[in-house]
Please model this.
Amino acid sequence: MDTDKTKVQSLIDKHQGLKKNLIAILLDIQESFNYLPPDALRQVAKSLGMPLIDVCGVATFYRAFSLTPRGKHICLVCLGTACHVRGGPKILEELERKLDVPAGETTKDGQFTLETVACLGCCAIGPVVVIDGEYHGHATIRKIGPILTKYQKPQAS
Amino acid sequence: MKHYRAHLLVCAGTGCVSCGSFKIKEALEKEIKTRGLQDEVQVVATGCNGFCERGPIVLVQPDGIFYQLLTVGDVPHLVEEHLLKGRPVKKLMYVPPAEKQPVPKMKDIEFFKHQRLIVLRNRGRIDPEKIEEYIAFDGYEALGKALTEMTPAAIIDEILFSGLRGRGGAGFPTGKKWAACAKEKATPKYLICNGDEGDPGAFMDRSVLEADPHAVLEGMVIGAKAIGASKGFVYIRHEYPLALKRMEIAITQARENGLLGQDILGSGFDFDLEIVQGAGAFVSGEESALIASVEGKIAMPRQRPPYPAQKGLWGKPTVINNVETWATVPNIIRRGADWFQGLGTETSKGTKIFALVGKIANTGLVEVPMGITLREIVYGIGGGIPDKRDFKAVQIGGPSGGCLPAKLLDLPVDYESLTAAGAMMGSGGMIVMDDKTCMVDIAKYFLNFLQDESCGKCVSCREGTQRMYEIVKGITEGEGKESDLALLEELAQITKDASMCGLGQTAGNPVLTTLRYFRHEYEAHILDKRCPAGVCKKLIRYVVLSEKCTGCLSCKKACPTEAIKGTLKEIHLIDQSKCIKCGACKEACRFEAIEEQREEAIQII
Model:
C-alpha cells in the first residue's frame, strides 16, 4: 500500500518542516496512519533535509512509535509500580492468553495491538487497562473477557 | 459577573475522569436544568482534587460538602435533596474506615486535614480552563510584582533566600541555577519546564498541570524575567493528553490577556512559550536528555559540565526546572521568601507533593510540609494499609529511589534524610507495599524498567542494569546462588560510580535498598527456594484449602486451563500439572479457599 504522500506532507508542513519538530511530526504521522510507514519516514527525512538514519533513530528510540502496522484497537496495560503491586502483571498475562499475542504485538486478525505503558498516572483505579482511550479501572482477571468482548464486535457478513 | 447561590465543583483530574466524572457533570447540568436551577447553581469542572481513591468527586460550595464515589444514578437524588430541599445527602458522603458516621465537610476529612496546600492551592476550587478564576485567587499578582517592582537580581535573591530546591529529584537550589544562567553573556536564553514525569506510580506534575496550568506559566514568566530569557518550552509527556490540552488553553488565554508575548503587562518585557510533546522515554526526564528531545533528537544525556545554565538548548544558556518548582515560584514572590523560609526543615523548605499509591487505603495526591514523617503520611493522611494487612515498605523516588522498611516510618521527609536512608526525594512518588508484596520481585520490576529505559550510552548502565536484572530474575525463579548477593552489590555500586547521568547513577538504589533492608527475603529465595510473600510464580503453587472450600464451582469456571477438578458441593482440587499459576481461581473464590503455598508445603506433598 502506498503511503498518502500529500497527507504526510501536510503533517510536515503543519510543523513548519523544522528539524526540531521531528518528534511532533512523527507523533502526528503515527496518529494518522496508526504506525510509521517506511515511505513516510523517507519522506520526512527528505523534507527535513536530514539522513534517514537520524529519523529512524528517533523513531526507534521513543516508546510511542511503532514501525509495524498496529491493530484496530490499541489495548494498553499499565505496568506502573502501583499497578504492579496491585496485580498488573497478572492482568497482562490474561490479555496475552486471551488475545494470543505477547505484549508489543498485534493479533493475527489485526484487531488488537497489546501494549504496555510505564504509568498512566491514575494509580487510584489500578490495575488499569485502556482500550482505544477508554479506561477500565480496578481490572481483574475475570473482567478481561467481558471487556474484550465489547470491542470484538461481530464482523458484518 | 453572574452570582450563583451554589457551585458544584466536579473533579476532572485524570483519576476521576477515568471513573466517569464528565458523565457526572453532564448529568448534573441536565438535572439542574430540569429543575430550573440553572440560574442559581453552577457546575464547574476542576483539576485533580487529590482524593483519587474516592472518585468521581463533587464538592458543593459554599457549604464545603464532599460527595464521593458518585454514579450517574445518584445525581437526581443529590440535586433534589441538597439543592432543592437543602438537605445534604448522607449516603453519598465519605465514611472513614471502621466508622459509621459520615464526615460531611471536606475540611474535616483526615485525608485533607493534614495537608498544607501551596502549589496545589487552587486544586479543586477553580476551573483550570478559565484564566479569570486563576486571577480571582490572586493569580498573576506575583507576575505583576516581578515585572513592575523587582529587578532580575532581586527576583533571584528572593528565590535564593527562600531556600527553594528543585522538586524534580536531585534538589538543586533553584536560585543558584537561575543565578548561574543569569550571569551568562550569550543570548538568547531559554527556559524549559520539565513535565516528562516518567516515574511509574507518580502523577504530581500531571495533576499540577491539569489543576492549575497558569501557576506553572506564571512561574515561568517570572523566571524568564529573572534570567533574561525570551523563549520557553513546556515539555509534557504525550501520555498526559488532558495536561497538554489545559496547558495549551492556558497559553492561549495568557497571550490574549497580555500576560505572554510582546510587552507583557506593558512592562516592555517579551517572552513566549511553546509546548513540546514527549514520546515516551524515561531518560528524557534527565535535563541534558530533555534538551536533546526538545531539539527533536534522541533523548540521550550528555556529559556535564558544561551545565545547561551555561550551554543548554541549541548551545545557549538554559534553565530547566520541574513543573512543581515552577508552580512554587509565584507563591514565593507573592508572599515573600521569609514566609516560605518558615515552612519545612533546616535544609528543605516549603512543601512537597507526593503521589500516595499502591497498597494504601486513601490513594491520592497530597501536599505536605517538608519534614513530616512517613508515618504521618502513610497512616495519618493515607489511612494505613487496606484489607487488614501489614505495612512492609514504602518505595520513594521512583526507579532511582529505594524501599524503606517499617522501622524507618518515623523518618522525616526531607532531601537529606531520604538520601541517607538510601532512597531519594525524586519527583515524589510514594508507593506503599504490604506483606503480600515481594521485595525481590520489586527489585526485579525496577531493574527490568531501568534496563529497558537505559539509553545505552554508558556501558556501566546498559550492561549493569541488564546483568542485575538477569541475576534478580534468576533469584525469583529459584535459580539464585549464595554468591549472587555480593555480585549484585558490586554491580550496583559500579553502575552507580561509572555512569554519566542520574538514571545510571541511581540505578543501583532499588537493589541496594532492598538488600539493605530486606536481605532475608533474598536469602529465603536463594537458600530455601521460597517466596515469603507468595508472589514469585516459580516458587509457589495454588492449592484449595479443603476446610474452606464449599464446592461452588466458581474457580473451576474461572480456570483457563481446566486444571480444576470437582463437582458441585464437593471440595475442588487443582491439577498442578495443568496449572499455569495465573491466579484466576484465587480471584474468583469468595471463601478465601485458595491460597498460594510456599515451597515447604510443596515438598510435603
Observations:
- Chain A has two domains: 2-61, 73-156.
- The longest helix of chain A spans residues 22-33.
- The two ends of chain A are 25 Å apart (CA to CA).
- The first strand of chain A starts at residue 73 and ends at 78.
